[in-house]
Amino acid sequence: MTERSNPERLLLVTGMSGAGKSTALNTLEDLGWEVVDNLPLTLLDRLLDTPPAAGSGDERRPLAIGIDTRTRGFDVGGFVRRLGRVRERAHYEVALLFLDCSGAELERRYSETRRPHPLALDRPATDGIARERELLAAVRAVADYVVDTTDFSRIQLQGELRERFAGEHPHEMVLSVMSFGFARGLPRNADLVFDMRFLRNPHWDRELKPMTGLDEPVARYVAADTAYEESVSRIEDLLLTLLPRYAQDGKAYVTVAFGCTGGRHRSVHVAERVADRLRAAGFSPTVAHRDLASDPRDAIEAPQAR
C-alpha cells in the first residue's frame, strides 16, 4: 500500500443476485462502515491506495466493497487473483462475504419484484440463476463468510450481519442458541444440531398443547421424562468442551440449534435451559425460537405421537 491510512478491516461483499447484497451494504453503512458498491475491479487497487477525504472522520473506519456479476470488468478468475494480491499486501484483515440463496427462493423474489435477472434479461430468471451459480462457484469456495439468506427476511438478515460485524472485537466468538421444528425444515446456518424428539411430547396433552416451552407446566412435563436430565446434561458438558476449542481456533460465530417436531415445546425449553447453563459458564449466548409463533397442528406432530 502507498500512503493510505489502513482501514480497520476490508470486507468484499458479493454473492447471488437477489440474495441481499444491497441490504448487507446498507446495514454495514448503518454500523459505521465506509461502503462502496459496484466498484470496477480495475479501480480496486486505486481505491485502496487513496487516502480518505480530509475531515471524513476516523481514518481507520472499516471498508466494505460490493462486487458482483454486474460489476464492470467482472471476471471470476481475475477477482480471485486480485483478492489474493490484496490479502498479501494488506496489513489489516481482508475478508470475503458471500451471500447465497436457494434457486427456488431467488426465483420467487424475482417474480415478486418483476425485475429481470441481470444474466437473463430476455429469458426466465431460472436461466440466469443457474448460470450465475455456476459462474460464482469458485468465488464462494474462497469466501471467509457464507450467509444463506433463503429463510431470512430483510430484518433477519440485518440482525445476522449486525451480530457478525458490529462488535468492537471482531474475533470474539458470537454464540447463538436457537430452537426450531424439523417439520418446518433444518436451520441453514446452524453449526451444531441436537434432536430433542426422543423426549415425550407435550403437544399430546390437552392442557399443554396451546402452551410453549417458555411456560413452566411444559418445562416440568419435559423435564419429567426419564431420559431428560442425563441427555441434556451430557449435551451441556459437550458444549462446554467444544465451545472454548472453537474460540481458540478462531471460529467467530457458532450457532447451536435444538429441534423437535413442531418447534414449540421441547426444543424451546431445552434451548432456554442450555443457554442458562452457558451463561453461568461465562458465555453470552443470544436465544431465538424460530417456530415459536407457529400454530400447533396434529398433522405435523402425528409421527411423534405417544
List the keywords:
single chain, 306 residues, alpha/beta, five-stranded parallel beta sheet, four-stranded parallel beta sheet, 11 helices, 38% helix, globular
Give a nutshell description of this structure.
The protein is of the alpha/beta class and 306 residues long.
Radius of gyration: 23 Å
| Poorly predicted runs | none
| Overall residue-averaged pLDDT value | 86
Shape assignment: globular
Q: Level of helix content?
A: 25-40%
Percent of sequence in beta strands: 15-25%
Spatial order of strands in the largest sheet: 2-3-1-4-5
The topology string of helices and strands comes to EHEHEHEHHHEHEEHHEHEH
What is the overall number of helices? 11
Structural class: alpha/beta
User: Separation of termini?
Assistant: 66 Å
Q: Total number of β-strand segments?
A: 9
**Biggest β-sheet strands, sense, barrel:** 5 strands, parallel
